[in-house]
Write a structure and sequence with these properties.
The complex is a heterodimer of chains A (about 110) and B (about 120). Chain A is globular and about 40 Å long. With about 110 residues, chain A is an all-beta fold. Chain A is about 0% helix and about 50% strand. Chain A starts with a strand and ends with a strand. Chain A has strands at about 5, 10-15, 20-25, 30-35, 45-50, 55, 65-70, 75-80, 85-95, 100-105, 105-110. In chain A, the strands form two sheets. In chain A, strands 2, 4, 5, 6, 9, 10 and 11 form a seven-stranded mixed β-sheet that branches. Chain A has a four-stranded antiparallel β-sheet with strand order 1-3-8-7, with no helix packed on it. In chain B, strands 2, 4, 5, 9, 10 and 11 form a six-stranded mixed β-sheet that branches. Chain B has a five-stranded antiparallel β-sheet with strand order 1-3-8-7-6, with no helix packed on it. In chain B, about 35% of the residues are buried. Classes of the chains: A mainly beta (about 110), B mainly beta (about 120). The interface between A and B is medium-sized, with 30 and 28 residues.
């Protein structure tokens, strides 16, 4: 039974560029949440997808957008990258109506 | 929105000692409180969780206690081992009551267990 997977593992971009990160949820899960973890901080909620719609959103600008596909996998897109977007981006999956979230290994984004 | 405070930020203990990490939350509607362990360069792993209808939960050397009135919860690790060294995060959620469970995390506690 595969756990949550994310790609790529690492990514280096320059300011102003755009990036797409990918996540496949744990088998049997239908809800995907994205978190940003800055160095030395706890994960911060970006948004959550269920049934291909954004259901909840944290305090992040519109430069952060996402998508969920019919197979429950998800993408996180960040436009007009800023130096401050450098972080570990974590994807977590769960089943709707349940509380437990399982995290993927993350994508380390570095913006130069 | 919810705010979670976590203390201490770092904790050093000797192998075999106990370790306690404390968190407070602000939103009385929160009803689900997980704890995650994150080793360097790895994903956060759920180690134990508790719901607001329970005051304490144990799993071998790990226990979590919850005081709803005071809005705080704590992680207790007994007989610590060097492999317990990691960053521990507490989190709070309104859980299924809100329909879609999202987590608000504390800033983490770096636990170092010396042999």
């Amino acid at each position: 039974d595969a756990g949550v997977t994310q790609s790529p593992t690492h990514l280096i971009k320059t300011r102003g560029q755009q990036v797409t990160l990918r996540c496949s949820p744990k088998s049997g899960h239908d809800t995907v949440s994205w978190y940003q973890q800055a160095l030395g901080q706890g994960p911060q909620f970006i948004f959550q997808y269920y049934e291909e719609e954004e259901r909840q959103r944290g305090n992040f600008p519109d430069r952060f957008s996402g998508h969920q596909f019919p197979n429950y996998s998800s993408e996180l897109n960040v436009n007009a990258l800023l130096l401050g977007d450098s972080a570990l981006y974590l994807c977590a999956s769960s089943s709707v109506g349940t509380d437990t979230q399982y995290f993927g290994p993350g994508t380390r984004l570095t913006v130069l | 929105g919810e705010n979670v405070e976590q203390h201490p930020s770092t904790l050093s203990v000797q192998e075999g000692d106990s370790a306690v990490i404390k968190c407070t939350y602000s939103d009385s509607a929160s009803n689900y409180f997980p704890w995650y362990k994150q080793e360097l360069g790895k994903r956060p792993q759920l180690i134990i969780d508790i719901r607001s209808n329970v005051g304490e939960k144990k799993d071998q050397r790990i226990a979590v206690t919850l005081n709803k009135t005071a809005k705080h919860f704590s992680l207790h690790i007994t007989e610590t081992q060097p492999e317990d060294s990691a960053v521990y995060f507490c989190a709070a959620s309104m859980g299924r009551r809100s329909g879609y469970s999202t987590l608000t995390f504390g800033k983490g506690t770096m636990l170092l267990v010396s042999p």
